Amino acid sequence: MGRAEWLEYVQALGIAVVLAFIIIVFVAQAFVVQGSSMEPTLHDSERVLVDKMTYRFRDPQRGEIVVFKYPLDPSHRFIKRIIGVPGDRVYIQGGLVYVNGVPLTETYIKAKPDRDWGPEVTVPSDRYFVLGDNRNNSEDSRYPDVGFVPRSYLVGRALFIFWPLNRMAWLHTPALTEQIQGGKQGFQKLPSHAG
Predict the structure, then answer these.
(1) Residues annotated as part of the active site
(2) Which of 18, 63, 144, 149 has a Cα-to-Cα distance from 4 of 20 to 30 A?
């Protein structure tokens, strides 16, 4: 191989590395799921593709699965589902999650929460209330070490399971906002305290 060919390979490799860096930092990145906190939606060792662009152009939405920096150690990443957005009032009572007084219908969870959480708390500005789909085995916003997740800690939105191949699928977002807006007329609000 001549010097010109060798330089061409080095140049192509350099361009590939720069493009990969740009994609990983700004566009999308693969993450490995660790643990069972998002079952049955996501399982341990599955690999997901995370979109890092969308939240540059719009706000995160209820129901979206997000990867975020763990507040106690930002070098670690957690994956959970957004349940409450800034200004929402949330609490858990009798096995149901309430947002703005409306009990959510959650077909995607492993089991109903086995303990109450409250009293009703308002999600602060620029922060998000997140829960794992495996409600009884998830370290999430109910715990002080996670708490309400700052928007600046959101890495991106999980879009697609790409490994293993037999689990390959798009991750759908349940219509939680529509439930909450539609449920305001149809449900009577329960007391905001737990217990």
Answers:
(1) 37, 80
(2) 18
